[in-house]
Amino acid sequence: MEIVDLASRPDLADAALNLGDVGGEFIYRGSSGKMITLERFRQHWARYFLIAIEDDVPIARALSVPLAYPAEDRPELPDHGWDEAIQWAAQDKMDGRAPNALCALEVVINPDHRGRGLSAPMLKALKARAAETGLQKLIVSVRPIGKEQEPEVPMPDYANRRRDDGLLADRWLRTHERLGAKILKICPFAVTISGSLADWRDWTGVKLADGDNIFPGGIAPIIASVERDYGVYVEPNVWMEHPM
């Protein structure tokens, strides 16, 4: 396996994006998700779009954005997690502000290659890229994989569960922990997405009813109102920091 980036292999972009999504397509329907387009990565963050290949075929991708944190006006990681990290990166790019940290946005593995332990090398490659480009830390708004099975459990209760061996119970949180990452805080509003009932049916295939709606790929319910014709999804994540 070899890990390259979009800057050196722009020809692999479409194949890398076709590997799938984190949780589902709906994740990218929020205002922040719409900001991280392929064209913007090509123009601004091509070195932080990593692609694992075998026989010149993409089998995994890792997307990240550089940003300024900590900074005078950013002493703490945001409660709005993934959403606000993307906004910080865009603001810094527009303002010409020098970044000092790298924020991982997603790691996606080809379904045919899952179970091979590819997530860890992709995270290590992000850490290496951060170091190579003069950044001082790698932060991640982690979306715990197993939370899809327990969408109604509060994130603090879920994220802090540990196995008998002392490691974190969720396997994606545990992957980060095994690489030395530490939990910093829960970000309760990491991803916020709103839309009409028709929008949500298009994005998820689910017909929403009044109140809380559990749906495939979600780690929290969609709160819907049929009378007002909207559904709002607020996803909590877990901020973790990797040592450099």
TrEMBL record:
This is GNAT superfamily N-acetyltransferase. It comes from the Bacteria. InterPro entries: Acyl_CoA_acyltransferase. It comes from Kibdelosporangium banguiense.
